[in-house]
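Service request form, structural biology core

Requester: graduate student, group of Dr. S.
Request type: structure prediction, single chain
Budget code: on file
Notes: please return the result as structure tokens.

Sequence provided:
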Amino acid sequence: MPQSVAMTDPTPSPNTAAGLRERLADRALSLLRAASPRHAELLQQADLAGRVARVGLASDFAIETLRRQPALLEHLAADDPAPLPLPVLDPLQPSEWAGVLRRYRAAASTRLVWRDILGLDDVDATLAGSTELAEQCLAIALEALEREFAERHGVVRDPAGNPQRLVVFGLGKLGGGELNFSSDIDLVYAYAHDGDSDGRRSLAAEEYFARLGQRLAKLLDEVTADGFCHRVDLRLRPFGNAGRVAWSFAAMDQYFQREGRDWERYAWLKARTVAGDIAAGEAWLETLRPFVYRRYLDFTALDGLRAMKAAIVAEMQRRDMADDLKRGRGGIREIEFLVQSLQLIRGGREPALRGRRLLLALQALVEGGQIAPEDGAALAEAYRFLRRLENRVQMLADAQVHSLPEDEEGRERIAVALGYEGWAPLAATLATCRARVSAEFDALLVPRRGQSAPDALEGYWRLLPQAGEATVLADAGFNDAGGADAAVRDFARSNGVRALSDAARGRLDRVVPALLGAAARSAQPDAALRRLLGLLQSILRRASYLALLDEQPSALGRLVDVLARSALLAERIAAYPLLLDELLDVRVAGPIPDAAEMHQACAAAVDSGDGDPEAALRALNEVRLALSFRIALAALDHRQPAVDSVRQLAWLADAVVAQVLAMAEGEVVGAHGRIEGGRFAVVGYGSLGGCELGFGSDLDLVFLYDADGEAVSDGRRPLEAGRWYARLAQKVVGLLGAVTSAGRLYETDMRLRPDGGKSLLVSSLASYSEYQLHRAWTWEHQALVRARMVAGDASLGADFGQVRRETLARPRDAAALAADVASMRRRMRAELDRSDAARFDLKQGAGGLVDLEFLVQYLVLREAAGCAALLEPRDTPRLLATLASEGVLDTDMVESLRQAHSALVEAGLGCTLDRRPRLVASDEALDAQRARVTAAVAAQGLVFDPEA
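Core staff response, request fulfilled:
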């Protein structure tokens, strides 16, 4: 019976996994035992023989290398075989170099096979080991050739007379530190400066380094009796095979500025200097960063990806490469493209995404919220699985292949060596893996399918400007269909639209109908449309922003929603399209950075300028725009109280002023030296000091300094202290108001300084103290209630605080104080209150914000002499809370005033966001809040009404 035969026959079938293992083990062991007596002696060790058998199942290349190099088996017999000693190329025997390198590479590669198959290394370690091996061979070969070239041709020197070396850039997986087991290496040769070598047979730098590079490639790549060392591919250099072999940095700069293509951004994303002058190469790569990573979100990267993917698919179909692990559907290349595309899209804004190694970049994308954690984990697992499988395919015969073996035995060997019972279970695992990768890749490439516009609006747009009916817009939901039609028609015939390239026009034809549909569904269709057309006009020449709206339906919908509800944000986005990036920032719906984080962000922006004041100022402006935009969105969406938003705007201004002061001080010190022992501080008054800054508010600033009256700066152009600090204050004001491509930082108002506009821009601490204690008006002491240091020397800030406390804590005659406060408020109401019968002025009207501020300031000045706790808070909510805790006002009244303050601030912020004057129609709720303020004012005996 077959069953009894199976039970008694000890010989496994050659077609089973066990039979395959036994047959290949016998072959490997027999081959090695016959190689030499030393082999035979070593293989008497059963444990070593078992390990060789496992290696023989997976790699004919490794067994052949062990046969050729008897000492290698003894080295690998250790429990944890160490790296092999590096080879030495004898300068007196250049004919031996190729053999030495090839034998070393074969031995070191066999060690990698051994460690992988026996479970001593994971796939990450194998990829890193393959990379390190290639770098070692490159470095050893290049150093030998450089010595030879120096003897024959001398060296090429830079303008300072220092010797130059060839710069070898590694691209692709070599650059990323994730080289395949049997991969070619993508190299680009460069050098820092043109010139001539200084030997007797002098060569121009281009020819010198080209010859050196060609010799290097030949030494590594040429097939000899010992095989090859590393296959070298130079086709990724500028202009490919048609381009020169070695390029100067200056020539590379010109090429990428004028000729650089989308696919090269992907190629150079992983670029790393792998041999030669490492420092020079890495410094130059930093200058290439703007080519690879755009400053803003760049969805045009997907165009290049689609083109590359289409070319690969066409090649796959033409050559029937469905089993290709690298280029096939759901293969390694799709994971690489997915990660690199997201890096290119966002890396200009997020430095953490600029990594060369794929798995680290994938993790950064997960941490940055661009890929869901579960998707990131699945892609990382798939990548490691596919790379290990690809390595095993290449380890069979040390062949540069990416497809699974076509023969049945080859597939079985791969599967069994990886621990599967046969090909079928491995094939099932592979199919599941590739399906997951393919789904993730498609999700990146085809998001636009989710934004298809209604056919009627699409047809309407495509008929413009010659045809098209306004009734389509009326049916869609626009109230003034005629006006909307005229506006859209004018846009369609504008020069900007007519001048678009075919590709950009294609994007516009997809975007406009979708925008029309979203605007029609918004809260204010006609307003949204007007604002959208203004924005589109401003971004027509910016392909990256059209691409963003085309590729990201979520951004398109969010944009229309924001524009429909906020004229201010509509203006800002149209003026600074970089804010479109914020609509896709996953952090935009999260918590707003705190004060410390804002300081860090502003400092990082200035640092990114690399010492260029103009670049630093632009970057600082961009950070200010982005953060204020996030605060505005939080206010617009009612995700936080208005009082939180105005406080955050004040924090942001603090952070900006601190950086501007540092920049200004650097400029003044550079020109005039320092004032020994001098101190400087910026004091914020008004809404800045009170942490209630609005969108677009100017900054009320006072500048203080403290220095020896005789002090003079120590620079080449010395200034006495007063002039030095005046120059510093002027620089601060100038930088805050300087116009950059991202606008200006802040308008400033210095009228609250001692003696107002008649005085010097900066005051000494002594003169400021004397003024506040002896000559200041009551209204100036009211202003001092909200004043605080926002930047500068901390000790001077403390001294300012002491002057402020002494001034505010002076005993005052209550009746005289009340008369002064009321008189000033009546005057302001008469001059500034814009309320009328139908509308109420939120700031200056009766019962408005200024009435409340004057009430609080009056109480602080009246009570501070006996209540030191009132001297610390600057903002209205905390001042009110302190008035309650100190018993100056009862708790119920303070709560009613707090609610009134919150309501008034929120209403005012809403007006600002929609670019409306802070004049609102009275309603029952608002009247109630005003009444609370008016009642509290009257309860203190203050009369603010001008008619009273």
